[in-house]
Fold each of these.
Amino acid sequence: MRRTIHQKKESKFLKVICPKCKNEQIIFNKASTKVKCLVCGNILAENTGGKSIIKAKIVKVLG
Ligand SMILES: [Zn+2]
């Protein structure tokens, strides 16, 4: 089953796990640029047409 993360219009910080190296990282859900994993450089989130697309696994929503 596929779960969709509903993104509200609020800005939030997300705790994600890099699918490549399992590094935990806090990212901003309204990032306007690409967010890379600090360990392996894998792209965790990117912005396409004004929308942030989270490519990592979200483990927790903060705030
Ligand atoms: Zn990584």
Note: Residues 18, 20-21, 23, 37, 39-40, 42 surround zinc ion (CB under 6 Å).
Amino acid sequence: MTPLLSQVLLQNRKPSRIARIDEYRKSGGYEALARVLKNLSPRDVSHQVGEANLRGRGGAGFPAGRKWASVSEKGPFPRYLVTNADEMEPGTFKDRVLIHADPHMLIEGMIIAAYAVSASKGFLFVRPSYESVASIMEREVKIAEEAGYLGKNILGSSFSFEIVVHRSGGRYICGESSAMLNAIEGKRPNPRHSPPRSTEAGLWGKPTVVNNPETLANVPHIIRNGAGWFKDLARSETGSGTKLYCVSGRVNRPGCFELPIGTPLSELIEEHAGNMVAGHDFKTCLPGGASTRFLPRDLYNVEMDFEPMIKAGNRLGTGSVIVFDQNTCLVDATLNMTEFFARESCGWCTPCREGFPYVRDLLRRIENGEGEEEYLPLIRTLCDEMTNSFCSFAPGGVSPVESLLEFFEDEVMEHIRKRKCPFKRSKQ
Ligand SMILES: Cc1cc2nc3c(=O)[nH]c(=O)nc-3n(C[C@H](O)[C@H](O)[C@H](O)COP(=O)(O)O)c2cc1C
Ligand code: SF4
């Protein structure tokens, strides 16, 4: 197996315990914060993160430096930073691994990001089934306060910042950044209209920056080692940094792996995830969680980075690969995901609220041997309509369905012709 040369975010990961503040400090932790508060202006920090080409790791890949710089210096106060640890995207568990490995890396990243946008309060929004993440963070935030890294006049500077851990009510849509702001305000978590962007008018109408934990954990390293160092970590030409990839499905060693961004999918599966289980061949995967598209077999060597994935007609998403083998029925798998999206739709707009149950019912009939050929154009039309929904939940949610029909139409047709699921016998 190729050694993991670029352990940055998971450098203090141990199988049985989290890194405490002393261990984090021993590995250079909180040096970046001291340097920022002493030598850098907020704009310098955004600029350096922009130069490093740090793209958001929560799914959309938006450049973090550009987002921070879009908070107007003249904008109103107070300002907020929200860390999105909702992590309900099926197949994704990297933020849980990261926080369990080294919580202070995220805390330091949050403080530096808050400094860059002059935020005085930060929320860590946590999925309720991640109670261990919430309680670890509550404990470690207190320790950081006692050490002078949080609270009033951090390290003797004029900058003050506090972090509050907020437990989510537990719906997938709460991870959509504007719905999350409604949830924190105690409102129903429907996504908000944009404009205004949250960097202009977010929490309680004040400028608010939302970032993913993995995005923020990279920040101290960029400040300490420089933008050039961060760019050089990547394997792909357009990438920067490492990536926490999750792999699940029929592989020998499912898990979360930190690798240079742009590592080929084939290498991720064969070397790091221990290859396919004996007797099971790679058929396809969803490369970035359930709201990305099935990847055809001829793209098995694609570089797992934002731009190469777009060129391949797909999305990197959260970089969480769900692997399917030749014995897995993709109609059944897509039905399973569509059931999830139908359940999790917030119901705000008609195409999504009505579309997912309709597509789910058609897929269910096909899977049960009750499908008709005319369902295929109907499903395609429904998916087209659903991409015009109010937020990006629906275009993401129909991605497996659209790509099922694009790349695996034969498999769907076989269900219809045989009037049964052809995989039922070989299911294990
Ligand atoms: C339905 C839905 C769920 C989402 N869930 C998450 C999530 O759990 N964590 C996350 O960081 N981003 C999630 N996102 C993306 C966020 O809206 C937002 O782009 C992200 O938190 C910004 O952080 P980043 O720029 O650091 O990636 C979700 C988006 C949608 C549409
Ligand atoms: S697309 Fe779905 S999740 Fe998004 S606002 Fe409409 S109903 Fe809600």
Note: The first strand starts at residue 80 and ends at 85.
